[in-house]
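Q: I'm building a small set of examples for a reading group on sequence design. Run inverse folding on the following structure and report the sequence directly after it, with nothing in between.
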């Protein structure tokens, strides 16, 4: 039986189930400590496998397209933070102050890797450039996201984190396993490629562990008593507005700067998306456990909205390409 179009994907359903379980059965005390250690190990394994999966040949193939990469990085790490700050008069009335801080955190994150590449491929864009841009964005985020968080959220006086301390923790927990995976790719890369369908559950399981521990701590602190339903509805609107502006801006910038259609597709899908896989582990390092749940809500909603919107957009790009090719064949 075909899957209903409006039914979310299995991972989204798992996220919803995890938040529900954390709301009804939050872990605390000794159980929270144990889950914390397991979560840290899961995150390290997640980034180790990311390092082992990343092809150096793919990076070299796309690395020469420096104008495209600069534009994608500018959209990811400059345009988004500017939008987050500029939209404060619009977003603040829709959401609570804590949820707005979550929106700012979302704006500071790097781009997704897997879905950006997948949508670029589906839309018939420049896939090697997408691989390079998305992967480099993820690596740069290890250093740039803590700086941006300090700049955006620290300006509100709502974080006591040290930027250098945050970078050190993220380097130890995320970058070191990633580099280890890259160094061992010669020996384990083929095994990782063969077992991708199974290993994706390590990725998803690590994220679900972080979400469970984060929301457990938030629920114990009274998360659902702090966020009224109108604020949740406003958060959906805020995420839609932010994504719409990012999609429009990346498309217009690509056209204005004279990029080809294939390159513009890459710019749209790599420059308008934010990484749940990177954002969830980083939040557990950057923020106190009692605030992580609220901080992650905007990211989780934005993630699902961007997947649904970009899936439709990629199909339209692909259809446009097919129609164009068909027209050329008929004219010849």
């Amino acid at each position: 039986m075909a899957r209903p179009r409006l039914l979310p994907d299995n991972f989204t359903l798992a996220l919803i189930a995890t938040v529900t379980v954390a709301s009804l059965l939050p872990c605390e005390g000794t159980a929270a400590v144990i889950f914390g250690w397991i979560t840290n190990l899961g995150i390290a394994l997640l980034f180790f496998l990311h390092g082992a999966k990343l092809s150096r040949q793919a990076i070299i193939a796309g690395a020469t397209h420096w104008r495209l990469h600069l534009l994608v990085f500018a959209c990811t790490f400059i345009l988004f933070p500017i939008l987050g700050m500029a939209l404060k008069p619009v977003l603040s009335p829709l959401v609570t102050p804590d949820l707005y801080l979550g929106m700012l955190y979302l704006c500071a994150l790097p781009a997704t890797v897997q879905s950006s590449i997948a949508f670029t491929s589906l839309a018939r864009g420049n896939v090697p450039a997408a691989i390079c841009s998305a992967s480099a964005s993820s690596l740069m985020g290890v250093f740039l996201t803590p700086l941006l968080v300090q700049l955006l959220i620290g300006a509100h006086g709502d974080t006591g984190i040290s930027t250098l301390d945050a970078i050190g923790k993220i380097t130890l927990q995320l970058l070191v396993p990633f580099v280890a995976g890259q160094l061992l790719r010669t020996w384990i890369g083929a095994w990782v490629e063969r077992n991708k369908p199974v290993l994706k559950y390590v990725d998803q399981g690590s994220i679900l562990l972080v979400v469970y521990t984060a929301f457990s701590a938030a629920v114990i602190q009274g998360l659902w008593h702090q966020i009224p339903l109108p604020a949740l509805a406003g958060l959906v609107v805020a995420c839609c507005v932010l994504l719409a502006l990012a999609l429009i801006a990346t498309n217009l910038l690509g056209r204005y700067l004279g990029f080809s259609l294939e390159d513009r597709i890459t710019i749209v899908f790599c420059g308008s998306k934010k990484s749940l896989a990177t954002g969830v582990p980083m939040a557990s390092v950057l923020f106190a456990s009692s605030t992580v749940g609220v901080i992650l809500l905007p990211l989780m909603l934005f993630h699902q909205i961007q997947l649904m919107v970009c899936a439709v957009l990629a199909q339209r790009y692909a259809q446009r390409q097919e129609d164009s090719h068909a027209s050329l064949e008929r004219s010849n």
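The mean pLDDT is 78.
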